[in-house]
Amino acid sequence: xxxxxxxxxxxxxxxxxxxxxxxxxxxxxxxxxxxxxxxxxxxxxxxxxxxxxxxxxxxxxxxxxxxxxxxxxxxxxxxxxxxxxxxxxxxxxxxxxxxxxxxxxxxxxxxxxxxxxxxxxxxxxxxxxxxxxxxxxxxxxxxxxxxxxxxxxxxxxxxxxxxxxxxxxxxxxxxxxxxxxxxxxxxxxxxxxxxxxxxxxxxxxxxxxxxxxxxxxxxxxxxxxxxxxxxxxxxxxxxxxxxxxxxxxxxxxxxxxxxxxxxxxxxxxxxxxxxxxxxxxxxxxxxxxxxxxxxxxxxxxxxxxxxxxx
Length: 310
Known about the structure:
Layout: E1 16-20, H1 25-36, E2 40-45, H2 48-61, E3 66-71, H3 77-86, E4 94-97, H4 115-136, E5 142-146, H5 169-193, E6 201-205, H6 214-222, H7 225-237, H8 242-245, H9 247-254, E7 263-268, E8 272-277, H10 287-301
Parallel strand pairs: 1-2, 1-4, 2-3, 4-5, 5-6, 6-7
Antiparallel strand pairs: 7-8
Helix pairs in contact: 3-4, 4-5, 4-10, 5-10, 6-7
């Protein structure tokens, strides 16, 4: 794995991929590099305008790319269903659950869920479940969910999934990222137990400290100018560029031999460097907690993973 880079991505001709949050940051880089290797890539973006602009930009960099924009608002389960039902592909080889929000002031989604839990976890849980039949139809398909090393700040609280009792922007973010890893763990377990055995793999990755707009969005939303300036300074001085931050995700999505329920991140101090197996908190592989989160997620979203039912 040492020194792995985009040149090591295998030929993806004939493969179909969906990348959420692909209009900028890591998502754009992931979509571009998958398309560069021949995949047909759907850029799933909350804004139609930004999605179309991203496609235009991508085609300027990779003229032969086969890419298309599609509207997807993970904070609105109606939009998630609309996107999944309209996707014109019977088989889907790769789903990259990349989009997310970080450390925002308290808010709720269109369906009344706390924003970070609703977007980062529930939206992707619903999307994956709705697209699962298409993923199962593609031999060797992968589901890659992007978490964060900051998941270590907090475990999921099954008694207060929507942070009703008490809200802390960073605690809520960490819980949503732990939920991403618990979801990956439980999905991998259920796929392995499926009758007839599925070769679909559920894996996770994180970018380390990457230079994206996530770190400035929260302070900007609250008008905390000093905090926003500090976040921008951190991006300039300490963060690695999106091209480097995207490498662990691209590795998890395309490298041969990536095991199900693995967690890939940067090799140096969980922060930067080539893709490598990453440390994760013990609670993210807790079977009982995974089952509880799964049951709650099905109840809250109304999405049941019927192909995985016993």
